[in-house]
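Project outcomes to date are best conveyed with an example. Our students and postdoctoral researchers have been running inverse folding experiments weekly, and each run begins with a structure described purely in tokens. The record below, which covers 284 residues, was selected by the lab manager from last quarter's runs and is presented without edits.
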């Protein structure tokens, strides 16, 4: 558990320090990235220090096996890697001989069952040695099926908005366009709410949402705002947010995730959201 907390702490620190993601500027990292894209485990392993041996932190613990880390990255080529997207979050020179990088890696591949994507956060500590720069440690998060936010700066929910008026307008639009209303209850402080917001922009989700729903984001603050709306529809946010509710054009609740089904959006795959939106879309 302490190792999982250590990785989680790294992610929170990375997000807190994140500005606008930037392309890699550190030449040794660019060469490491090229080796990963080639799928050459030996070439990848050559970027890691032998003295001292690197330490890698993952959610299950700490390991010192460079070959294991190199194989993790090399295997994606065999799995059908088509694109490896890098969003550099932090690049810090701790000293002239030590550099720390933090980035999100988006792994996109096509396998026997079709295209798939994974995302993870990575930290690398690079040290200048006699043979050049080498990786002496770092960590990576578990693989995630949905893209994760690089910061919590986006204003998804607005306290100044009149949510009741927005819902009334959405219901009028839903009646006119033969759609459902999708209420998204959450707060800008909520990491998983930002995950869900990014998911709604995916190329396989956005058209489904746009064609069948009118989306209204309802700010619940620290579970102390717009509660009259929550109660009006006999919903609950006690299991956490984001919480989704589907209304028909008459304002009746057809379905909700009051059971907390989407509360841990970071752990979901896109299929769960696609299935939910497909199940409750209007039948024309």
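After processing, the design step wrote out the following sequence:
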């Amino acid at each position: 558990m302490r190792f999982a907390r250590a990785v989680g702490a790294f992610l929170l620190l990375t997000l807190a320090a994140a500005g606008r993601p930037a392309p890699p500027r550190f030449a040794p990292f660019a060469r490491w990235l090229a080796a990963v894209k080639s799928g050459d485990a030996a070439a990848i392993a050559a970027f890691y220090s032998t003295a001292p041996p690197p330490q890698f932190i993952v959610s299950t613990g700490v390991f010192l096996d460079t070959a294991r880390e190199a194989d993790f990255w090399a295997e994606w080529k065999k799995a059908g890697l088509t694109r490896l997207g890098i969003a550099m979050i932090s690049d810090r020179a701790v000293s002239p001989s030590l550099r720390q990088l933090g980035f999100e890696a988006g792994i996109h591949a096509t396998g026997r069952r079709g295209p798939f994507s994974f995302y993870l956060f990575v930290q690398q500590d690079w040290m200048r040695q006699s043979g050049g720069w080498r990786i002496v440690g770092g960590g990576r998060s578990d693989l995630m099926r949905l893209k994760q936010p690089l910061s919590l700066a986006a204003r998804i929910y607005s306290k100044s908005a009149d949510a009741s008026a927005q819902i009334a307008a959405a219901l009028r639009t839903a009646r006119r366009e033969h759609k459902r209303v999708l209420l998204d209850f959450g707060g800008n402080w909520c990491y998983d709410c930002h995950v869900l917001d990014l998911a709604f922009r995916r190329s396989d989700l956005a058209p489904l949402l746009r064609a069948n729903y009118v989306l209204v984001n309802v700010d619940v603050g620290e579970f102390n705002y717009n509660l009259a709306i929550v109660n009006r529809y006999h919903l609950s946010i006690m299991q956490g947010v984001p919480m989704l509710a589907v209304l028909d054009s008459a304002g009746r609740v057809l379905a909700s995730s009051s059971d907390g089904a989407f509360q841990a959006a970071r752990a979901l795959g896109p299929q769960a959201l696609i299935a939910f939106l497909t199940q409750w879309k209007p039948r024309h």
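The radius of gyration is 22 Å. The chain has two domains: 2-140, 163-279. The training component of this project remains on track.
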